[in-house]
């Protein structure tokens, strides 16, 4: 495997397009492997720098006194969920992932963090859409002390057009209704989202945390939105 070429480990076609797990050599030449996830036919993330996926969990856990029950929207490569599990105050994590193939690959342990998360005794992975779960209309049912959402790039730059509804004012209100008193709703975005910040702020006190990441010679600014109803 050379540095630039990624090999497909497994792939499937879903109603939203291709989903695939790929691996490539780590650019540091150590011989270790970087995993990549493709969803809806486009590169979604890799395991090279997962600092913002981890920060989503850390920033929300830091603000929540008793995060016993946690909902994670979007399994991805499992890094947010793995960080949640490092906090021993967390008793149970429900992960909702729309791509049933990815849930299956996680159960088979086809990427290391995915396997750790899917087999963990405090985790239940559910194949399904997070939108009805946030509306209280589908299993698993809340409330949760933490609701962590990383299902798309953010409302201004969607991968799945169908995810637009998750960021609507009605859906955000519904999501906040799933959060226990003293809990936190935290949303990851691939760029600052002023309209999302404004919409959340009309519902409850909201903080924006900006995170700078160096990637391929460029500085990228990611954002977290933390709302405490
Ligand atoms: C960028 S990845 C999440 C990364 C994750 N935070 C991590 O640490 O690896 C986004 C995930 O959300 C899933 N997803 C997209 N739309 C969804 C929806 N409406 N409901 C549930 N999962 C969804 C995608 O299939 C993908 O697995």
UniProtKB/TrEMBL annotation:
Signal peptide: none annotated. GO terms for biological process: polyamine biosynthetic process. Keywords: Polyamine biosynthesis. The keyword Signal does not apply. The keyword Glycoprotein does not apply. PANTHER family: BLR2883 PROTEIN (PTHR43317:SF3), THERMOSPERMINE SYNTHASE ACAULIS5 (PTHR43317). This is Spermidine synthase.
